[in-house]
Sequence to fold (344 residues):
Amino acid sequence: MHPGAEHSRSIAIGLLLGAILLVCACTSLLDRTDPQSRGILVETYPATDGKVFGVAWVQPDKIALLVRKSDEAGVLSERLLLLETVKGNYTEVPVARTNRCDGGHSAISIGRLPDGRLGYVNRCALVFTQVSARIYGSLLRAIDTESFEDEVLIETGPPFVISELAFSPDMETAFLSRTGANTHKVINLWRQDRGLQGSPSILSTASKSPSWTSSGDRIAYFATRDAGIVNGSFVRADWRLYIERTFPMAAFGTSIEVVDGITSPSDTKWSPDGETLAFSAEVDGAEGVWAYGLSDESLTRVWPRYAHFDWSLDGSGLIIIEDSDFKDPSTWPEPKLVILDDSE
Fold:
């Protein structure tokens, strides 16, 4: 073969291989950030009476919602509601205001505890001055959603406030995401017999949204090294999603990064079987509720917008409640029951 022809043939083969690699790379990227969501809407419930900023599926037919709204005078009010999925109506859960804290109260988060009760975190003793407001501490309460009896499980004092939590199945150990006076959230370990411990995470900077599997063998959370305040403005951080094996206890600190390119993350929740991790965030520029498959390391967008969510107790679907404006009733969401389309 003529040397020039051989050279041209080599160039053609090189271009073809390059094109194949480019197609493969683009296909991989599309699989991760495809704007198509694979959540199938199967049920819509009546709109909430305010902005939802917390949701927990506590019984097969009952979903707890933390709701906030503003009246015409701009005064905020918060309510803890139970949505009965069969009847489609709401019942208000009474939350005791007489506890170890004095002063005002403000709800922070809710979640289903391993013993079936509803975990409810509120900060308390807000003391306002002309220049600042001081938060003295926070309480984690456990509420029975049948009898409405409640019990204080954990109390923190100044300057830390519990903002999120995740209990081990035996409720002997918990991860608490605490916000300090001048720091971003940092996950700390709490043990019933010893109280608050240090952070087991390999990342000692900002971390948030811990979630424990029902078997107790793994915990997931977001972490970043660059979140913080610079010149009075919050830095748009690059977050990563980590999964950490939790047993034996000596294994703490062996985090595995599973998803990067995350901004504005909130909520991580494992499916009841511990095989799928759902979270709400923007991933590579695409916002929504995402599902990470543990066995095949797949990443699927379940819903195309930011939302609060929780798994049904049998893992068959997710309750999705989109973000809204607590001042604008026209934006208050209708909770949606969504199942994941697992067809090819």
Q: What stands out?
A: The mean pLDDT is 75. The chain is about 10% helix and 50% strand.
